[in-house]
Amino acid sequence: MPHTLPSDEPQNSVTHATQDPSRAPRRSFLGGLLAAGAAGVGALMIVPVVRFVLHPVLAKTTEKSWSDVGKVDEFHTLTAPVQKLIQIEQLDGWRRTVSQKPVYVVKDSAGQLAVLSAVCTHLGCTVPWIEKQNRFICPCHQAIFDPAGRLIGGPAPRSMDVLPMKVEQGVVKVQYQFFRQLTAKKEVIA
């Protein structure tokens, strides 16, 4: 004869809990609540990480600003190009840099002031003014430019780049720009 448990003995509590219909909805509700809470906390924690990763892509870089070159009075008697250092500030992602860039103040063919970038249009070397020869000569590949920055010879594809300038309250100001090298047409890249 098979042995059976008397009906008044306690059954296994695990099987009893799963069979009790009043406990099953409460347990699944608590499990769902725990999952929703974990998902909410995870979402809150991922937002700063996503913003941190995407900030350099979405952030604007520094807008072009005007830098002081010098008082307009010091350039009235200009007979040869004068090198000046201007200070520019750049913001790229999280990095903010302040640097000095050389520019040349010259008089164009009409006798008006112009500001030239000292960067060679060939490969980006800094072009010095050689007073003895009355011309700009790039030390890297021997590109030659006249006193107004026009190309005379060498591998450079175009004349020296003229920067936007203005005179404000007696001060010459320039908007420094970076240009693409090795192209015949002047193209601003930053």
Structure description:
The strands form three sheets. A four-stranded antiparallel sheet has the order 2-3-4-9, with no helix packed on it. Strands 5-6-7-8 form a four-stranded antiparallel sheet, with no helix packed on it. The chain has a three-stranded antiparallel sheet with strand order 1-11-10, with no helix packed on it. The chain contains two helices and eleven strands. With 190 residues, it is α+β, with helices and mostly antiparallel strands. The chain folds into two domains: 13-58; 66-175, Rieske Iron-sulfur Protein (3-layer Sandwich). The protein is elongated and about 100 Å long.
Brief account:
The chain is α+β, with helices and mostly antiparallel strands.
Strand neighbour order, sheet with most strands: 2-3-4-9
How many helices? The count is: 2
Query: Can you tell me the number of structural domains?
Result: 2
* Sheet with the most strands, sense and barrel status: 4 strands, antiparallel
> How would you classify the quaternary structure?
single chain
Unreliable spans are none
Structural class: alpha+beta
Mean pLDDT, to the nearest integer, reads 83
Q: Which architecture of the largest domain does the CATH hierarchy give at level 2?
A: 3-layer Sandwich
Distance between the termini: 95 Å
DSSP, total strands: 11
- Could you tell me the CATH topology label of the largest domain: Rieske Iron-sulfur Protein
Q: How much beta, percentage-wise?
A: 25-35%
The whole-angstrom Rg is 36 Å
CATH class category name of the largest domain = Mainly Beta
Give helix % range: 10-25%
Name the CATH superfamily classification of the largest domain: Rieske [2Fe-2S] iron-sulphur domain
Q: What order do the helices and strands follow?
A: HHEEEEEEEEEEE
Overall 3D shape = elongated
